[in-house]
Amino acid sequence: MRKTSKFLGIVGGSLSALMAVIIILVGIFITSFVGTFLEDFLNSDYYENLMEKENIETYDLEDYIYDEGIEDFSTIAGAIVITVGIIFLIIAVLGIVGGAMAESSNVLGGVFMLISGLLALISTIGVIGGCLLIIGGIMAFVKEKPKKEENLVEA
C-alpha cells in the first residue's frame, strides 16, 4: 500500500504542478498581450462597423478605456492569475513531498497528500491530480497486513 500511495502522490502532485505551470503561462499571456489586442480591436474598422450596425454609441466605452487604461486592467488581471498559479504550484509541491514521504513517514505524507488534494479539488483546477492525491493520502493511513509465513512441514 505504501508504494501505491507514493506513486499516486507523486503522479497527482505532478499533474497538479503541470496545471499550475499552465495557469502561470496564461497569466503571463494576459499580462503581456490581452491589453494590446483589445486596444487594437477597439481601434479597428471592424469594431467601428459593428457598433454602427448595432446602433450602439461607443464614446462611453472608448473614453473609459483610454482614460482608465486597458493596459492597467490586463496587468492586474494577469498578476492575479499568476499569483493563483504560484499558490497552486506550492500546493502541488506539498503533494509531491507527501507522496515521496509516504514510505518513510506514512502519517505525515498522508496528511500532506490529503491537504494538497483537498485544496486542489476546492480550486477545481486540478481535479484529476487532487483525486489521486486524496486516494494516495487515504492509502497512506491504511496499515499493511503482515505477510503470513507458511510453515511447510516435511512429511
Q: Secondary-structure blueprint of this entry?
A:
Elements: H1 2-42, H2 45-54, H3 59-100, H4 106-123, H5 127-141
Helix pairs in contact: 1-3, 1-4, 1-5, 3-4, 4-5
Give your account of this protein's structure.
With 155 residues, the protein is mainly alpha-helical. It is built from 5 helices and no strands. It has helices spanning 2-42, 45-54, 59-100, 106-123, 127-141.
In short:
The chain is mostly helical and 155 residues long.
The arrangement of helices and strands along the chain is: HHHHH
Q: What portion of the residues fall into strands of 2 or more residues? A: under 5%
Regions with little confidence, pLDDT below 50 for 5+ residues: none
- Helical segment count: 5
Beginning-to-end CA distance, first to last residue: 36 Å
For the secondary structure, the number of strands is 0
The helix fraction, in percent, is: over 70%
Mean pLDDT: 79
